[in-house]
Write a structure and sequence with these properties.
Shape of chain B: globular
Number of strands of chain B: 2
Order of helices and strands of chain C: EEEHEEHEHHHEHEHEEHH
Largest sheet of chain B: 2 strands, antiparallel
Order of helices and strands of chain B: HHHHHHEHHHHEHHHHH
Mean pLDDT of chain C: 90
Chains: A mainly alpha, B mainly alpha, C alpha/beta
Number of helices of chain B: 15
CATH architecture of chain C: 3-Layer(aba) Sandwich
Oligomer: heterotrimer
CATH class of chain C: Alpha Beta
Strand content of chain C: 25-35%
Radius of gyration of chain C: 18 Å
Strand order of the largest sheet of chain B: 1-2
Strand content of chain B: under 5%
Largest interface: A-B, 48 and 45 residues
Strand order of the largest sheet of chain C: 6-7-8-3-9-10
Number of domains of chain C: 1
Structural class of chain B: mainly alpha
Largest sheet of chain C: 6 strands, mixed
Amino acid sequence: MLALFALVGGLLLGCFYALFAMGLNLIFGVQRIINLAHGDVVMLGGFLTWDLYEGFHVSPILSALVALPLGIAVGFLFHRLVLPRLDRARDVETMSLVLFFGISQVIEALGAIGFGPNERSLPTNAIPSHPIRFLGETFPAYLFVVAAVAVPLLALFVLYLYRTPLGLQTRAVMADPREAQAVGINTRRIAAITFGVGTALAAAAGALAIIVLSGVQPSEGADLTIIAFAIIVFGSLGNPIGTIVAGLIFGVLSQLAQVYLPAWSNLVPYVLVLGTMLLRPEGLFGRRTRVA
Amino acid sequence: MPEHSASRVDTSRRPRLLNEALGVLVPVVGFSLALHVDNNELLLVYMMGYVAMAQGINVIYGFTGYLPFGYFGLFGAGAYAFGIGVTHLHWPAFADLALGGVGAVAIGVVLIPLFRLRGAYFAIATLAAALALGDIVANPALTSLTNGPDGLNLGSVYNSGEFYVSSVVLVAVSLLAVVWLRNSRFGLSLRAIRDDPYAASMMGINVPLRRAVAWLIAAALAGFAGALYAWATSFFYPTAVFDVTITVLALVFALFGGVGTLWGPTLGAIVLYSLYDIVGVTDPQAFQLIYGLAIAMLVLFAPRGLAGIAAGIRNLWLRRQEREVNRATA
Amino acid sequence: MPLLSVRGLTQRFGGLLALDGVSFDLEPEQAIGLVGPNGSGKTTCINTICGLYRPTSGTVDLDGTPITGKPAHVLARLGIGRTFQIPHPFTGMTVRENLLVATTASTPRELADPNEVLERIGLAHLATKEAATLNATQQKLLDLGRALMLRPRVLFVDELGAGLAPSELSAIATLLRQVAADGCALVVVEHLLGFLEQITPSVLVLNAGRTIFAGQLRDALRDPDVERVFLGSSGSHD
């Protein structure tokens, strides 16, 4: 039954989308910055995965793991070097947006220069690809593979956020940066570390994205960022569990659209983001941070 | 405490009027005569479109503080409204041009509810809306109306004299709009709104209405620029006009020259678009890289652009003058 | 009929009940003080009546006509004015331009003459200075001037006295008395009771979003409920 296919497939995809959007949500939660370059980091992750596969036959699953420490390092360094200057701007909220917009253009250009402007995709045998029967429906294997990688990564992240001292400090800063500083938390350091973690999540998602989206190209950055943004707004900005739930719902919605309204299915993220911002700006879980 | 001699002297009217008159006349006359110097007509038409759009960004961002990342959506709307006028209504070019402006304003009206959102969210929401519009226009399901992903062919109305003159007129209109805003009560109210919307409303100003007017002015400028692009280019795909690069360029031009000034966006557009023509057409990726870096540098080091740098230099000079006066009279 | 009639004004922010059924009447040209400890809801009361928030429930009538929940610019055009606890003039404009903003609105009200207002608030000599360069006291005066431009019928003054020197306080009290004498009703939120006394003897006392006393200031100071709220105990005088 088509609806069952869409539902199960959507939930599996949703695991990917939750991972995909989590980095953006995290960075926002800690610093109230919307990282418009998010989609481009994902795209870079995808390209590097392709490179590693083509060059060294490294499985994308392994690449996803490799992306983590790389992402943390790059993100942390970037944050340390660039962000302090931002505080001098007159209109910090909009200027940070413009800044990351510029960064996204830089990354896209570098991506196109380094990897060429065309789409890159992996051959079908890069990951297990025999169809899987489940609940009476046949599913392509990649859905399960992607979910099998995304779920542990998400679990790892949730564990980090809720069970480690660093995660606790991060959550404190997310709740109230001034209070956190007052109790002695080095908010600057947490912001930089968080930026690294967010970048890492995006890069890891990129490794999976090249499978899910059957290819990546440099110009996709903006569209990907909008999808991620739609998910985190819908799930309530700054709320990690909200992002997971919203990711799952988004997965299901986009699968349903693929099945029943295929000509217009690429409008789902736009409808979601605009609808949420206009009709229920606080998102599903109604957190303090509203957009309106 | 001794009276501080007025360090910020109220500049007298005459130099400013002269500056504003020049700010309108020089670009208009310049572009009118430019064909004699450089007969690359298409380049000049595109450049004029960008002058208008940089001023459009000036209007909406400089005067209301809202930055529409989706500004390109209005450009595309104008281009396609023009195109539909040509291919479906078979109207003469000038009527289609008017339709382009109307189309963009109509989309602008549809987007007005987005002003409820705060700054950064407004920016992203307009980006989403513009991308959605581009997807809708390019959708194969709408081929009968927009020719879907295959683009429009408008060669039938090509008339270089007419679209060139129209472009110059558009530049003049955009500059006059900014002059009007800088000197009118309406413009003063916009500056108040940008600074403190609630306080402005407590002075009787209908904030949503006035913001909407500024927005629709900016939308019309982008729409006409898009329509002129369509007219001059004759054949284009939806991805050419619904391209975020268009907003990037307009934004960089405006920021580089200095938002809130009259000359800033004009100079930014002329100088940087010329650069683009030299570098970017041959190597679009290098160009994208340079412009991305330019945006980042601008935000981090010169958020008020050339005008800000100029003002900074002037202030330093004024302060030095003041110190000398104080020392002399001490 | 009272000029301003507030009934059962309630304002809830999420879990916080900031106003709990506040009711009072204001006669034309009457001046009353609005006092209470921090957090009692004084500024919320102003913000709600002056259109920054919609009340959760309750009504506000001006001259018998309901104005509850109307947008701020409509209220301003009907003659409601206010100052701000932390004054914030329009930056990037001169002092005079700050006042001129009022002339940009299309309002049926007859506006005050900016030069007269400048004289009244004592900032005529700073008319061409950038508003951002004013000191704290001057910014408060400019804030008041802005409100006076629309010749309000009801003016809400929010803690104008905070941080002013005694000489400045007397001058401002005189100014406010003049404003009242010119036919404007005043609601003066204040902590400084000595300052308030110079403006009006009538007072409304708020605590935790509720009115606990309405009447003369000197009677309020003897009221056991008021004492308990301000001094922490009833019947003890230190």
